Amino acid sequence: MTYEVDFSNKSLKFLHKLSKTDVKLVTNLLGTIKEIKNNPHEYKKMMGRFKGTRREKHGDYRIIFEINKEDNIINILEIGKRNTIYRKK
Asked: Chain-wide mean pLDDT for the chain?
């Protein structure tokens, strides 16, 4: 089953900002998100403040998402560098 993808404003803002400096990286991140669509349940479950979400690694970057099974939607919550994405806000 394939899921639809919904981006949070925060993740879209990050991709837009990154696209000004590294188009290839944005293309690769979007390719990874495309892979997540096909089987989102195979990715690592998160704990702590991200409980109920999953993550995928892409080099130094992380994609944090949640799965809405009822509507077949993957919500991309955050995309960011590993050293900043896990910090408390």
From this structure: 92
Q: List, in sequence order, every beta strand (DSSP E) within 23-72.
A: 44-45, 54-58, 61-68
The full set of domain ranges for the chain reads 4-85
Tell the residue number behind the tokens 């993740």, with chain if given: 11
Which residues have a Cβ under 8 Å from the Cβ of 46 and sit 6 or more positions away? Answer: 52, 53, 54, 55, 64
Q: What is the pLDDT of residue 9?
A: 96
Superfamily (CATH) of domain 4-85: RelE-like (3.30.2310.20)
Q: Which residue has the higher pLDDT, 89 or 72?
A: 72
pLDDT of residue 18: 92
